[in-house]
Amino acid sequence: MGAEPSKDDKQPTVEQPRPAAAAEEEEDEPDEWDKRIFSTGCAEENAKLTDCYYEKKDWRQCKEEMERFKQCWKSQGNDKRTDSKDV
């Protein structure tokens, strides 16, 4: 007769892997946030701005990226569409 596991012997939980096709399908499908960003016409500028912040953790070090995003935002007419104001 073997020893029964004690209550202190916790087995780690393991997530079952998802089929690769299902994971790829989810990744390829843009979510609502992506759709909104793409509709502005400034998705590339937005990505560069968020990447800069992710790397530097300080918006003050991303002034060039912010300026490019703002210029794109205005050139696409988003300032009128969203009724944003210059400060």
UniProtKB/TrEMBL annotation:
Disordered as annotated region, ranges: 1-34
Domain CHCH: 42-74
GO terms under biological process: mitochondrial respiratory chain complex IV assembly
Taxonomic superkingdom: Eukaryota
Listed GO CC annotations: mitochondrial intermembrane space
Bias (Basic and acidic residues): 1-12
Annotated Acidic residues bias: 23-32
Keyword annotations: Disulfide bond
Database matches in Pfam families: CHCH
InterPro entries: CHCH, Coa4-like
Protein name: CHCH domain-containing protein
Organism: Apiosordaria backusii
